[in-house]
Structures are given as structure tokens and as C-alpha cells.
Amino acid sequence: MPEFEQEAERARVASGEDLNGFIYHPAPAVLTALLDNPALDETKLSLLLARKDLPTEVLEEIGTRKFFLKSYVVKKALLFHPRTPRLVGLRLIKDLYLMDLVQFALSPAVSAELKRYAEEQVVARLPQLPLGQKITLARRGPGRVAGALVLEGHAQVMPTALDNPYLTESQVLKALAREKVPTVVIQALAKHRKWSHAYNVRLAIVRNPSAPISIVLTFLPQLTVSDLRELAAPGIVPENLRKYLLAEVNRRMLASRKHASYEARASMGALSPQPQDQKSPEEEQKNGEGKRGFDRDRRPKKPDDEA
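Predicted structure:
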């Protein structure tokens, strides 16, 4: 529209208060023209990016201007904007500082794809991080990052990572699914007040070849017979563990048969206890004779003169 064309031309050369007014203009064409204004510095561009209703095409245009992206403040504001296009976000994530990257990954407004990519960026940086930053990430980092820190098995980091509120069971199971899991990790999970009571975690520990046999044996009675049978199939677990699985299955089956037999006998009345006050005729006769004999012995004797 002609009126917007005139507004766009004015936006390219505006300064001072006029420039500030164009920052809140509703037309995308005017805002795009504003990006060509030499007076649009980092501070004013940050004000523009603070608008939650900023059109997507304007955000995309900012993402193509290398001059703007030299500013870390602008890159961060552009990435955190809820309307920033996906491709622009993917390009900017790798340039974020560590804790900003963590904040972005924990933001509820971020899409699942960008969140996952941000978490992967943090995990990739873990080997180079000092111990203090690892402890910080273990305490309040994303679940994927906490899971990676658990796998490292560091004595000062792992307990904190296991208590991370964002750590999910799926992340723990993903860590246990690795072929080479440090024994200290399995021991920590087997003793943890939360994860040691999760059935799927117990099952994953039993399945993991790095699990000590002492831990596995404590979990076998807590697994279902169907899972024990599945694990006892050839090739699933080492052969020395397989015999324990089969023994546990046989023990359960024997206990089940005994219980079923007891229930059947009880239902037929074979195990019904006899009332305590009900006695057999033989017992009553024996008790009667004993009582009469007792009474005879207790009767007072007659005096000699009455004999």
C-alpha cells in the first residue's frame, strides 16, 4: 500500500524519537525497511526483538544480516524469540554460551527439535568442562545432560546427577542400554532411593552385562516370571547368570504349585481346623472316667465309727 511505502522510506532514515516510534510499527514491510537504517544499533534492535508479536519474516530477515549477528546480545535475543524460524534457530544454537544454552534447552516455549539439539550441544562440550561446571549442570541441567553425566561415573558428579529433577526414567534406561557401563554407575543406581525402586531400571540392571552378580541376585526375586523367562532365553545374558534365572523360575513355579495345592485342599475342607470345644467320643469317655476317678478320690472318707 502507498501509505506503507512512504512509512518504509521514513523508517530507513529516521532518528531519535522517530526511530523509536518505528520500532513498534505494526506493518512487516516498515519493520523490514527499518533494518536498513544505519541508526538502528544493538540497543534499539534488542528493543525490536523484545516484541513478542514481531512478524516471522522480520525475524528471518534479521537472521540473514551478518552485521547484526556480530552482536552476541542480538543472537541470543533472536534465538530466544518464540517466533524465530526453525532454520535460523538451528544456525544460532551452536554460538550460545554454555549456561545460555542450558537456559534455552529448559525453556518451555522451545520446540522439541531445538531443545534436543541444544542438549546435544551441551553434551558435546562436557569433556572440556571443569568439575565445578559439571556439578552445576548435574544439579540443574536438562535431563539428557544429567544422563550423560551419570554415565561418566564421576564420584562428585554422579550422585547429584541422579537427583536431578529433570532426569527421567527413559534417560536412565538409555544410559543402562550402553554396552560398557561403569560398574560404579550400576552400583549407584541399585542403591538409589528412587531409581532402585523403578521396575524397568531393575530389569535393565539385570540385563546389563556389567552388573555385578551380587546386585543381580538381589533383584531376581522382584522380577516377573515372564521377564525372567525372557532373560533366560539363550544369548540374552551370560551363561553363568542364566542358571540363576532358571533356578529362580523353577523356585517360583514350585512355590506356585504348592500354593495352588494348599488352596485346593482348603477349599475342600481338608485343612479346616476342628473347633477346640469339640472332642471325639473316645476323648470324652476318657475324660469322663478320669473325672469320676478324681471325684472318688476327692470324696470325704467316713469316720471309723461309721465304717
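Summary: The CA atoms of residues 123 and 145 lie 6 Å apart.
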